[in-house]
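Quick one: sequence plus flavin-adenine dinucleotide SMILES, need C-alpha cells.
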Amino acid sequence: MPHPTADVAIIGSGMGGATVAHALASTGARITVLERGVQIPAAPENRDPRAVYRSDHFKSDDSWFRPDGTAFAAGNHFNVGGNTKFYGGVLYRLRERDFDGVAYPEGESRAWPIRYAELEPWYQAAERLYQVRGDASQDPTEPPRQAPLPFPAVPDEPAMAEARRRMQAIGLHPSALPLGIDLKTWLSHGSTGWDGFPDAREGKMDAENAALIPALASPNVELRSGAKVTRILFAPDGKRATGVEFESGGQVHTLRAGLVVLAAGAIPSAGILLASDVDKTINRSGQVGHNLMAHNQSIAIGFDWRFRNDAVYQKTFAINDFYLDDGAGGPPLGNIQLLGRVDGAILKAGLPRVPEWLLGQVSRHTLDFFLNSEDLPDPRNHVRLDGKRLVLDFQHRTNLSTHDRLKARWKQALAEAGFKRSVSMLFGRDGPGHQCGTIRMGADPTDSPLNGWCQAHDCANLFVTDGSPFASAAAVNPALTVAALALRAAQRMRGEMGETLGS
Ligand SMILES: Cc1cc2nc3c(=O)[nH]c(=O)nc-3n(C[C@H](O)[C@H](O)[C@H](O)COP(=O)(O)OP(=O)(O)OC[C@H]3O[C@@H](n4cnc5c(N)ncnc54)[C@H](O)[C@@H]3O)c2cc1C
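Reply:
Sure thing.
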C-alpha cells in the first residue's frame, strides 16, 4: 500500500533525489520518492549505438519550447535514475578555487556561500556511495582530500595507454578519470562504452543502482514511478511546504508531507517551483528559473593514420593542464576528457551523408575528446512557464571566447602529439546534460532562493537537491557535486525533522 502521507516527499529519483533517499533511509521516516518516469528495461537497443546516438529511441516524448514558440524534445531523460542512467559516470569534485568565483575575460563566475572544505567530507561520502574508481594523485588540479578514492582507476586500454604516452611526451599530465563504473559487470553485458548508453542495472554506478535500490531495501522507503509532480503545495503564508500535487494514471493526486525535497533536475525543478505559488516567499529574489548554466561543450576528434584505435570504452583519462590557467599563466580554459569510444556508427550521427563503413575505417585512427569550459550565471538564460508549457530561453552564450581558446589550445596539443588533423564541434543548447543554477544558493535571500544547505531561505521544510542550487557551473562534470550537496542537505533535513524521526 502506498504511504497515505509521507514524512518526506522526494520529487525525482536521479542523482539528487536518490542520494537523499539513501541518506535518510536509516532514519525510519516514511519516505516517498515520486518519479515521473519508469525503470529502463533491459533491451537490445540499450547497447546499440544507432539507437542511442542516431534515432530518437531514447529521447523524451515530452516537449519544451523555445522563446519563438517552436517545440523540441525535452532534453532530459525522464526515467528511474534520471539522467545518470545515461551518464558517463565521471565523478569529479569541483576544484577548490571554483567555490571562490573565477575571473575570466568575459566576466566572473559566482562565489558559493560554502567553501570547498565544508563540502570535502560529503564529497568523500559521495565517492564511497558511488564507488568511484580513480587515482586522484595523478591530477595536478585535484583539491585536498582526506581519503584516496575508494577503488583503483579503470585501466587504460592499449590504444589509450599509447595516447597517454603521447600526451606525456609533449609535457601534459593526463590523469585517471574518476569513474563510477564496475567495468567487469558492464562489459559482461556487451562490448560497448557506457558514456550515453542507458544502464539496465548492468554495472554503472548511477543513482538507481548505487543509491535508490539500496534505499528501497528499507521498508520505510517507497518509490512511486509514473508520478509526475505538477506543483508543491504550501501553507497560506508560504512559510511551510505541506505536500505535492502529482499526476498518475490520468488522475491528479495529493501527497501530504512533512518535508519536501525537490530534485527533478535543474530545468524541470524550476518549472515545478514556478507552477507553485512562491512569488512572495521562495521566489522573492525573482531568481527561480534564472542563471541556467550547462558548460560550453565541444567534441574534438584528432586523426593520425599511424594511431590504431581498437579501444572498446576509451574513456579513462583527462587533461586538466588548462583548468587553473591556460598553461602560460593566463585565465583558465577548462577540462578535457576522453569521450566514450566514437565508432563509425556514432560518427554517422554527425556525418549522415558519409557511408558508415568509411566512417568505421576512419574511426580506427581517431581519438575523441570532450571539452568543457565554464559558462557564467546570466539571468537572461532562464526557464519560464507559458501556461503549462516549459519555455527554455538559453540562447545567451557566456564565456564562449574562453571555450574557443580551449579548443584552439587543444587542437595545437593534438597536432604536437601526432594528430595533425582534427575537427571540433560545439554542442547545441537543447539538451543541456550539465544543467544547473536555476534555483541557486547564496547568503542573501534577496538574490538567491536557497541558503548554503540547499534549503529555501523562506521555507525551512523545502530543500532542492539536484543541479539547481549550483552558484557557478565550474568546468568539471557536476554529478558528484550534486550528490555531495544532497548528502550535506540530508544532514540538515535530519535536524529539521528532529524528534519526528526514529533516529
Ligand atoms: C548523456 C549524458 C552524460 C552525462 N555524463 C555525465 C558524467 O559523466 N558526469 C557527470 O557528472 N554528469 C554527467 N551528466 C550529467 C548528470 O547526469 C547530471 O548532472 C545529473 O543526473 C543531475 O542530477 P539531478 O538530480 O539534477 O537530475 P536527474 O539525475 O536528471 O534526476 C531528475 C529526476 O527527476 C525526475 N523528474 C523530472 N520531472 C519530474 C516531475 N515533474 N515529477 C517527478 N519526477 C520528475 C526525472 O525523471 C529524473 O529521474 C550526463 C548527462 C547526460 C545526459
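The first helix runs from residue 15 to 25. The chain has one domain: 5-42+73-500.
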